[in-house]
C-alpha cells in the first residue's frame, strides 16, 4: 500500500503543477484581445485535466486498498486465503487431504516493438490430493516473496505429516 500512496501523491503533485502552470499561462494572456474567452477555455481544460489526475490517484489508492484486504493464514492443519476481501475468493488447502505438493515457476520473456525485453515470473504450488485430483495453487506477491511463502507452506505440510495422529 505504501508504494501506491507514493504513486498517488506523485500523480497529484504532477497534476497540480500542470494546473498551476496552465493557470499562470492563462492569466499571462489577459492582455490579449480575447483574454476572457481564452481564460475560460484554459480554466475549463485545466479543471478537466485536474479532475483526471484526481480520478487516477483515487483509482490507484482503491486498487491498493483491495490488495490490502487480502489475507493468507497458515494454520497447523492447512492454509486459508481470502483474496481482496471477497467471500467468493476464499480458498483453502487441508494438509490431511494432500498426498503430495511441490513448487513450480514459469518465466515469460517478451520483446516489445521497440526491442525492449520484459519478463514476468509466476509461482505456484502443484497440489495432488488423496482423491487423485490436481490443483494449481497460485502464490501471489501480495503476501511477500512467493518463494518464501511457498516454502513455508510446504514446510508446514511436512511438519503436519510428522505429527502423531490423534483419533477422537
Overview in brief:
This protein has 168 residues and is an alpha+beta fold. 46% of the residues lie in helices and 29% in strands.
Features:
alpha+beta; three-stranded antiparallel sheet; 6 strands
Query: How many E strands?
Result: 6
* CATH topology label of the largest domain: PH-domain like
CATH hierarchy: architecture of the largest domain: Roll
Tertiary shape:
elongated
Helicity, in percent?
Answer: 40-55%
Element-by-element helix/strand order: HHEEEEEEH
**Spans with pLDDT under 50 lasting ≥5 residues?**
none
> Within the largest sheet, what's the order of strands?
1-2-3
Measured by DSSP, the beta-strand proportion falls in 25-35%
Number of helices: 3
* Terminal-residue CA separation: 44 Å
Class derived from helix and strand content? alpha+beta
Instruction: Return Rg in Å.
Output: 26 Å
Instruction: Tell me the domain tally.
Output: 2
Structure, explained:
This protein is of the alpha+beta class and 168 residues long. The chain folds into two domains: 2-68; 71-162, PH-domain like, CATH 2.30.29. Helices cover 46% and strands 29% of the residues. The strands form two sheets. A three-stranded antiparallel sheet has the order 1-2-3, with helices on one face. A hairpin with a 4-residue loop joins β5 and β6. The radius of gyration is 26 Å and the shape is elongated.
Amino acid at each position: 500500500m505504501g508504494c501506491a500512496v507514493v504513486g498517488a501523491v506523485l500523480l497529484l503533485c504532477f497534476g497540480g503543477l500542470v494546473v498551476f502552470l496552465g493557470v499562470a499561462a492563462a492569466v499571462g494572456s489577459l492582455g490579449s484581445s480575447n483574454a476572457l474567452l481564452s481564460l475560460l477555455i484554459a480554466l475549463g481544460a485545466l479543471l478537466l485535466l485536474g479532475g483526471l489526475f484526481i480520478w487516477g490517484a483515487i483509482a490507484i489508492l482503491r486498487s491498493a486498498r483491495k490488495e490490502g484486504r487480502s489475507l493468507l493464514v497458515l494454520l497447523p492443519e492447512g492454509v486459508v486465503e481470502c483474496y481482496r476481501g471477497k467471500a467468493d475468493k476464499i480458498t483453502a488447502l487441508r494438509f490431511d487431504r494432500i498426498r503430495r505438493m511441490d513448487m513450480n515457476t514459469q518465466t515469460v520473456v517478451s520483446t516489445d516493438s521497440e526491442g525492449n525485453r520484459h519478463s514476468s515470473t509466476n509461482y505456484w504450488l502443484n497440489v495432488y490430493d488423496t482423491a487423485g485430483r490436481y490443483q494449481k495453487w497460485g502464490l501471489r506477491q501480495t503476501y511477500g516473496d512467493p518463494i518464501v511463502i511457498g516454502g513455508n507452506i510446504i514446510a508446514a505440510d511436512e511438519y503436519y505429516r510428522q505429527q502423531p495422529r490423534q483419533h477422537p
